[in-house]
Predict the 3D structure of the following.
Amino acid sequence: MNLNFNNINLKTTGLPEQFPKDTLPQIAFSGRSNVGKSSLINALIGRKSLARVSSAPGKTITVNFYGIDKKLYIVDLPGYGYAKRDDSERRRWSGLVDSYLTKSPSLMGVVQLIDMKVGPTTDDITMLDWLIKMEIPHIIVATKSDKLNKTEYEKMLNALKTHPYIGEDIPIIPFSALKPTAKEKIWSEIFSMCKM
């Protein structure tokens, strides 16, 4: 599948009724605040600053749709688990994300990001559990893989492979924004989930 990354349209939405109404396949990117979603999306698209890397993680509560070459959407969900959010912001986050994940007929799969140095957090496990129960296809991208030495890397990769909420058939792809060599593998999994 060839995509023209110069042909990208961004739609930022803060309300469910603003979500795109067309039928292009959508792949959502999910993860905790500061896990590296923006860096991953920029690396995949080959842009340095299309997805903004926030200096204040968890501040923006929007769902961003990157329409790529009129063929598919990369959907950037707001990060979860940010401690400084007040209750009203948490409710807004939950309502917006729940609306997207449960009511988007074009959602084909989820790229679930997990910080490879931290490992799955309680919020990550909640998300993985939900993806399993809803039978939504997903892959794991283990970010910040460059932060570990070889021993730590192998230990964490094995821990992810044997985690009770990560099935044996779920692809796990280590990723570093500094050396984005895993791009092709991630795109291959995205195309597979989109049946392209």
Remarks:
- The mean pLDDT is 89.
- The two ends are 7 Å apart (CA to CA).
